[in-house]
Write a structure and sequence with these properties.
The chain is an alpha+beta fold. It is built from five helices and eight strands.
């Protein structure tokens, strides 16, 4: 056996006669066609002018997107409108609550003011009634004092030669008239320049009191402090004139009523008062009676 007997042969298998004839026919037909085309001359290639329209696939999508965007915007607008309405409603509720509270507070304040005004009116009416009663009482006392003073003066003038005892009695009577008049004015107002009948300054009260005894005093405190005889504060008698400041330059006067007391129109805060001499110690005193 040959040493190459196992190596397969690489020769191509022979083609069948029918396949060879077919290939030869096809090749001949192609060559014939080329030959005919070359004989006819070069052909002019016409440009393609037809435009092929592709279907628009985005038109419907754009419409859908636009509609969705519009719907989203409308929802946003609706939400914003609702938010504004809710905020306005909340603000209105707060405003109404505040207005109600303010109305309640105002009503309570008005009620309190009305009650205070009513109480004040009642107090003023009561004070006026008491003042009228006091004035009526003082008027009655003044009338009685004036009548008593006139009777005393008439009796004194009818006597041709009064004794020393009757003269002392007349002085005592005049002092009593002065003291009674001064005490009747306690509670009257103090008014600068006041001369009565319901408001006084210090010298106006002293002058009016002495007038009930038929004695005319100077109008001002400076002159009244030198209108009589200077006396010691340790030997005072009812009816003496007390003064504060120097004699002839006094700035205040009052009437001594006995028992260490005086009556004077003090100031606008206190009015006409009765006080102890310890309340405001005078500088000196004069005796007119």
């Amino acid at each position: 056996m040959s040493h190459t007997a196992h190596i397969p042969s690489h020769r191509k298998p022979r083609q069948s006669a029918s396949k060879s004839a077919l290939r030869a026919g096809v090749a001949g037909g192609v060559l014939s066609t080329i030959a005919v085309a070359g004989a006819a001359g070069p052909a002019q290639a016409e440009p393609v002018t037809q435009t092929i329209e592709m279907p628009t696939i985005t038109s419907g999508f754009s419409t859908a997107v636009a509609a969705s965007a519009q719907a989203t915007q409308q929802v946003a607008l609706d939400l914003e409108t609702q938010a504004h309405e809710d905020a306005a409603a909340e603000k209105a509720a707060k405003t109404a609550k505040k207005a109600h509270a303010e109305a309640v507070r105002k009503a309570e304040a008005e009620k309190k003011a009305e009650a205070a005004a009513k109480a004040k009116a009642e107090a003023e009416a009561k004070a006026q009634a008491e003042e009228r009663a006091q004035r009526a009482s003082r008027t009655a006392e003044r009338t009685t004092l004036s009548a008593s003073s006139g009777s005393s003066n008439s009796s004194g003038s009818s006597a041709s030669a009064p004794s020393s005892s009757s003269s002392s009695s007349n002085v005592s009577g005049s002092a009593a008239s002065i003291v009674a008049f001064a005490k009747a004015q306690v509670g009257d107002a103090y008014v600068p320049g006041g001369t009565g009948p319901n408001s006084w300054d210090c010298s106006g009260l002293v002058q009016a009191a002495y007038r009930t005894a038929g004695i005319d005093l100077p109008r001002v405190s400076q002159a009244q402090s030198t209108a009589g005889t200077q006396v010691s504060l340790n030997s005072l008698q009812p009816g003496d004139i007390l003064y504060w400041g120097g004699a002839g330059s006094a700035y205040h006067v009052a009437i001594y009523i006995g028992g260490g007391q005086f009556v004077g129109a003090q100031n606008s805060s206190t009015g006409t008062v009765q006080r102890s001499m310890d309340y405001d110690r005078p500088t000196g005193a004069v005796r007119v009676l």
